Amino acid sequence: MTDAKPDEDLSALAKGGRQNFFGFILRLVARLPFLFIAGRLYGPDALGRFASALVVVELVALLCAMGEKRGLAQRMAEGDQSHPANLVYDGMLLALLFSALAAAFFWFVPAPLFPSGDYTELDRFIVLAIPAYALTEIVLAAQAYKYDIATTVRARAVIEPWTISIMAGVFYFLPAVSDSGLALAYLASIYAGLATGLWSFFRSYGRPRGWRPRPAYMGRLTMRALPLATADAIEWGTRRIDIFILGLFAAPAAVGVYYIAQQVASLPQKLKTSFEPILGPVITKNLKTKNYQAIASQICQVGFWIVAMQAGIALALGVPGEAVMGLVGPEFVGGTGALAFLLAAEVVAATAVVSEAVLVYVARVRNLWISIGTIALQAVLTVVLIKAMVAGGYGEPYKAAAAAIALMLALGTASLVKAVLLSRILGQSINTFRWPLVWAVAPAVLVGWAATQLPEWAELIVGIPAILGIYGYIIWTRGFGPEDRVLFRRNLDKDEPGRT
Predict the structure, then answer these.
(1) In sequence order, which residues have a C-beta less than 8 Å from that of residue 230 and are 6 or more positions away?
(2) How many CA atoms lie within 13 A of 486 on its CB side?
(3) Fewer CB in 10 Å around end: N or C, the chain?
(4) CA 411 to CA 349: how far, in whole Å?
């Protein structure tokens, strides 16, 4: 029985990885129409205003979720197993209270959402996304505890992106709401995702049994959750503070261009964040038995999967970057440099993310301080590099590239520090890098360079598949061993652990 346990964990991780890779493809297909609609119809100025509001809304929503995205798995593992739903409802009520207060505050004080002062009355309704976003994080974490990753894929990769894409197009052609189309489309997508999560949640957990609010317990839960909630918000903030700082030094149009580059770069980011729901239950199970060797092995395994997939996607989107950004509109081509550094940042950040998946349980306060140091370093580097570009007389695209470089350097530093800390705690080596990654990148770059000599349409249609093809072939034949190939195998005897 004990010999089967590592295979069972690997099977669970592989199954989650397959589902989330499929979810990534769905998200990519659904997100491209939104980027096209937002860029071509609304333009960079409207995108810049929307991005500024989005930074505050999603940051506050993550704080209001009280760290339950990752902390719920530990509470469920340690709590009353006879009525597990009650533990989830405790977190949901707490999140609802905090998010309702936050939404009310920003409704009456909208200046932090719209620092330019340019907004409509309908734009203010974006604050209603705060409670829905926070509750969605919790119900999806509850489903992940039962190894139900399919619900996360449906909500995050299908329902939300397709809803925002469709509704952004619909609202643009309605004169009464067209000026607020992006905000309203985003609001519709968040509630559609929440409805999807709640449907599966109620089927899995049902209604609470004998549950009632417990103020004393919820107070303890709040204090316990603060380090984790803050770490979640800071990790997310590293992907958004650059927009905020850039907005202080650059025009709204430049912020809009950077936002599009960030949205393209965030596609491979979803590959690593999508592993978080399945990593939590597997890690907490091994922590209870102090099986540190298994945890280190799982972290290295998943980390390599993420790095390998992200590097391939980064090459496919980054080498023909001008053509990719040109799809959104000719005025967005200036963001190509920023796109390249943002894609590189996501690759170097993978080690920090998988290491933090364990650190939030075994060293949450130290992890929090590292996260605070990371975002502080990023903020300083962003300001310094942007000022250097201004002093050198460089234009807006260089300011955007400076913000992306700062992010890449900060995340690379965080990856190194968190891997070293986790290695010391577990007494095991933590390393997600393998040399076949270099062997695969070199020919893929050559193929990509050759594709950039073609017309733009051929660069995309021929170049992207060619880059992915040569990179994937080398990684598969030279980089992936038998355990890695479990990620792409569906006929395992234990491929359905915990399915209900």
Answers:
(1) 63, 67, 368, 371, 372
(2) 21
(3) N
(4) 5
Q: Report which residue type is found at 63.
A: L
Q: How far apart are the first and last CA of the chain?
A: 21
Q: Which residue has 């119900």 as its token pair?
A: 139
Residue 53 has pLDDT above 80, yes or no: yes
At residue 496, the pLDDT reads 41
Helices (H) and strands (E) in the chain, counts: 22, 0
Q: With contact defined as beta carbons under 8 Å apart, do 164 and 189 qualify?
A: yes
Average pLDDT score over residue span 104-108: 95
Tokens 């001008």 found at = 322
pLDDT tens track for 450-471: 988 888 878 888 888 999 899 9
What Rg value do the Cα atoms of the chain yield, rounded?
22
- Residues 423-456: pLDDT tens digits? 999 988 888 888 888 889 999 999 989 988 888 8
Q: Which amino acid is at 370?
A: I
The DSSP result for 209-230, as a single string, is SS----HHHHHHHHHHHHHHHH
Which of left, alpha, beta for 148 (phi over 0: left; psi -120 to 50: alpha)? beta
Q: Are 404 and 239 in contact (CB under 8 A)?
A: no
What is the model's pTM? Answer: 0.72
Q: How many CB atoms are closer than 10 A to CB 393?
A: 7
- CA angle, corner 134, sides to 268 and 369, nearest 5? 70
Distance CA 278, CA 69 (A): 11
Q: Could you give the percent of the chain with pLDDT greater than 70?
A: 86
Mean pLDDT value across the chain: 82
Nearest CA to 401 out of 318, 312, 308 is that of 318
Amino acid occupying residue 489: R
pLDDT category of residue 2 using cuts at 50, 70 and 90? very low
pLDDT at 330 over 70: yes
Exposed / middle / buried, residue 452 (Cβ in 10 Å: 0-12, 13-18, 19+): middle
* 301 CB-side CA count, 13 A: 23
How far apart CA 372 and CA 381 sit, in angstroms, is: 14
pLDDT tier, 291 (very low <50, low <70, confident <90, very high otherwise)? confident
CA–CA separation, 44 vs 50, rounded Å?
A: 10
The answer to whether the Cα torsion of 99, 100, 106, 107 is positive or negative is: positive
DSSP assignment of 245-286 equals HHHHHS-HHHHHHHHHHHHHHHHHHHHHHTTHHHHHHHHHHH
Q: What is the pLDDT of residue 18?
A: 58
Phi and psi at 426, nearest 5°, equal -85, -20
